[in-house]
Specification:
The chain is mostly helical. The chain is built from 7 helices and no strands. The longest helix is centred in the middle third of the chain and has 24 residues, at about 55-80.
Length: about 180
């Protein structure tokens, strides 16, 4: 009986905070995010023989997470036919992992509210590029889409955020801006 090779523990442990951050972006809820990370790590362990030693473990884990999330979302859509229309809004769970000043916290909360309004496809690409600092090619591999699609989604997401920040709903000026 052949023994599956272990995943490199230091790289695996180092990837967990990034997986948690991306899972929070995907799910919008800390509890669901933790469940997604756990499911991702369990799936990675089950499929560890498929990981090519020497390749980018982080990208492999993000690919697994993306696929698990897409599968869970598809299942949730099917189950939504039986769900109550009174369910809580998932968007209320955004949390900012810093202790900013009150003004900064308000600004960051407004930005995250606008990020949450982006379509899932654009939000995923934006978060992988901005938070995880992945290159276009890495994002394309994680999401299994062409590089051109990554570039297009990222461009549209940035433009929507720029417009949202430049045109506040209340007509007042906003003391921050999104730059390329």
């Amino acid at each position: 009986m052949a023994v599956d090779p272990p995943l490199p523990q230091p790289e695996l442990v180092a990837a967990i905070p990034r997986l948690r951050r991306y899972a929070r972006v995907l799910t919008g809820e800390p509890t669901r995010a933790d469940d997604l990370v756990q499911e991702t790590l369990a799936r990675a362990w089950e499929k560890r023989r498929l990981w090519a030693a020497g390749s980018d473990l982080r990208a492999w884990l993000f690919t697994i997470m993306h696929n698990v999330f897409v599968n869970q979302r598809a299942l949730a859509r099917r189950d939504a036919l039986n769900d109550s229309l009174d369910a809580d809004d998932a968007g209320a769970a955004w949390q900012i992992p810093v202790r900013p000043t009150q003004q900064t916290r308000v600004e960051l909360t407004e930005i995250m509210r606008e990020v949450q309004r982006l379509p899932n496809e654009q939000r995923e690409v934006l978060m992988l590029a901005a938070l995880e600092e992945m290159r276009y090619e890495e994002i394309a591999a994680v999401l299994a889409i062409p590089v051109g699609t990554v570039m297009s989604r990222l461009s549209r997401a940035r433009e929507k955020l720029r417009r949202a920040v430049a045109e506040p709903a209340s007509g007042e000026t906003v003391p921050f801006k999104i730059v390329k």
